[in-house]
Fold FAD binding domain-containing protein.
Amino acid sequence: MKQLLLASLLFGYSLAHATPSICRCRPHEPCWPSHQEWNHLNDSVHGNLVAVRPVAAACHEPDLNTAECDAVAASWNNSIWRATQPGAVQWVNWEAWPEHNQSCYLETSPDIPCGQGRIPLYSVLAKSARHIQHAVRFAKEHNIRLAIKNSGHDFLGRSTAPESLQILTSGMKDIQFIDNFVPAGANKHKGEGPAVTIEAGVALKELYTAAAAKQRTCVAGSSYTVGATGGYIQGGGHSPLGTWKGMASDNALEFQVVTANGDLVIANAYHNTDLFWALRGGGGGTFGVVVHVTIRTFPEAPVVYSNLNISAVDSSIFWDAITQFHSSLPTLNDAGGSGYYFIMPQYQFSVMGLMFPNTSDTAMVDRLYHPLVSALNSTSGVTVEYASIPLPSISSVFSKILLPGPVGTPDDTGAVGIMGSRLFSRDLLVSKDGPAKLVNAFKSLSTEIIGHVVAGGAVAANGQSIDSALNPAWRRAVIHIVLGERWGVNATLAEQEAVKNKITNVYVPALRAVEGEHEMGAYLNEANPYEVGFQASFWGENYPRLYRIKQKWDPTGLFISRKGVGSEDWDDAGMCRLK
Ligand SMILES: Cc1cc2nc3c(=O)[nH]c(=O)nc-3n(C[C@H](O)[C@H](O)[C@H](O)COP(=O)(O)OP(=O)(O)OC[C@H]3O[C@@H](n4cnc5c(N)ncnc54)[C@H](O)[C@@H]3O)c2cc1C
Ligand SMILES: *[C@@H]1O[C@H](CO)[C@@H](O)[C@H](O)[C@H]1NC(C)=O
Ligand SMILES: *[C@@H]1O[C@H](CO)[C@@H](O)[C@H](O)[C@H]1NC(C)=O
Ligand SMILES: *[C@@H]1O[C@H](CO)[C@@H](O)[C@H](O)[C@H]1NC(C)=O
Ligand SMILES: *[C@@H]1O[C@H](CO)[C@@H](O)[C@H](O)[C@H]1NC(C)=O
Ligand SMILES: *[C@@H]1O[C@H](CO)[C@@H](O)[C@H](O)[C@H]1NC(C)=O
Ligand SMILES: *[C@@H]1O[C@H](CO)[C@@H](O)[C@H](O)[C@H]1NC(C)=O
Ligand SMILES: *[C@@H]1O[C@H](CO)[C@@H](O)[C@H](O)[C@H]1NC(C)=O
């Protein structure tokens, strides 16, 4: 009897290890591809397969190389360099795997050897759809964890995965303008108007610069090196032009995608409409690898740019002023105002820049601000500064104010930390005590707040005409609020856990409580990586439909990303299936 029990235990044990469908194949297991098989993949991608080590490996034994390490240190905070390196992502904490005591930080002692962490083992430096197809088929055939990396900017660590094969798309830079785009499958008289097709690796500044040269503009985000085609637009994509023309994903007309089978398909209003629905807001790294996307372009237009600074002598006066400021936001936003603000409670200071596209009428904008500015200006203990300037074009807002450097300018990156966020509705801001409730939450957190005024206007209106996976909370929102917390490279696991707990159990719950747990939601691309109930937060009532589409296009879960659709069926690293 005892022997029988033992035998069945042992049998059970060996079964768990032999079944490839439960866990992905790991190095040193018999299922891991042979050298010959890797070489074969390398041939099929024209020699673009590389073995990958974390970028800071050259700064540690046994691979210490002073010259190489100096070069790494010089580029450490350069987002352009990080985008092109298979052994890096932008937020260095995602390169480490603290749960497995593996990291490779520049700053730690050279005699501590580097762990691979969450850095992939191999990368296909993709140059074409074909390369992506070969990589996808290889990962599927050998049951290997797959990571899709474009810029590597993802704040939730979705562009890297331990013991994985990476597909690096950041080298695919083609941009093609079209006068009248006819989606595949549409009647040729059914042109959608001017558009641009952008390949997987195009960065936002590259897109803006190319569009400006054609006197066109398009809806995209505020960063030099975030990608236009990857996680950004697939997660919805907010923009300072959103209030004017909608979310980036609202302006997507067609995607070309490599599916989990390795097939190359079109997703638009005529072909694979369920995939088209999911790719507009369902999140990157989940439904396939996008090779290129075609988005609308718009003619250039003049802009009024406005700037409002508020400072106060004490914190109670400051928060009252910030409450009044939030009460005024719906009026500014209804008139087309969109942009960003920063609240710095430690300095009792806030600064906001809003643009009003397609007008030169500064007097109109000044009138909108007047009630707020004059009320604040006559409040004792408050200093207010206000200015409005007409600019000749949208592109000049980007080239002079938001992204004032040429293509090749990096974003600041290389930091260690995580964030939390929440979308807040117009209904809240126009309600009698809504702004005060919101500000009370900010007050209780006493941390820096980044406000994004990127919804309302066309984002709200498009809810009537566009059916996509985008979080429905966006259609009711005016602002997207983000806060973050950093830790040092020497932080122990316990110290890191303390930061996660603060974001997950204090900051985000305080923001959620303002409108209620079941109202509104959060923007999946700028959110807590440990978001509780992420399905409802990121997609609301769209989640069940997204989950069904995921099962249809990727039944085996080849594409799994942290807090992505279907990720709840897998463990934290996406290595083993839980159900
Ligand atoms: C400085 C900065 C500014 C930002 N500004 C904005 C902003 O204005 N508006 C906004 O909405 N967001 C903004 N973001 C957030 C941004 O949208 C996310 O970081 C997003 O994940 C970046 O997408 P990526 O493709 O560049 O990054 P990556 O980290 O490379 O990829 C993100 C996710 O998409 C997947 N993915 C990448 N490429 C593909 C592909 N071709 N096919 C399928 N999946 C793919 C990855 O696997 C990963 O899951 C900003 C971020 C930063 C760091
Ligand atoms: C792939 O082939 C190229 C060109 O022959 C070679 O330089 C590279 O080292 C190979 N990659 C791997 C992982 O062997
Ligand atoms: C973690 O790794 C470091 C460096 O390899 C080692 O010195 C340390 O003992 C490890 N800690 C634990 C808890 O395993
Ligand atoms: C700008 O406004 C004018 C006048 O209302 C309108 O005709 C034009 O279409 C607008 N331009 C854009 C790009 O929306
Ligand atoms: C505030 O009031 C003073 C005094 O009336 C005036 O000079 C100043 O221009 C006002 N500031 C703003 C921003 O309106
Ligand atoms: C607001 O403050 C910023 C940063 O200090 C400054 O650059 C800007 O000129 C100020 N705006 C006004 C209208 O004074
Ligand atoms: C990178 O930036 C961080 C701040 O985000 C800074 O603390 C660090 O010193 C910088 N590292 C290098 C190598 O420049
Ligand atoms: C991290 O620890 C190392 C070794 O103890 C030390 O040299 C380094 O200065 C520390 N770095 C930081 C940022 O605290």
In short: Residues 195 and 296 are 4 Å apart (CA to CA). The pocket of 2-acetamido-2-deoxy-beta-D-glucopyranose (ligand 6) is lined by residues 307, 309, 351, 385-387 (CB under 6 Å).
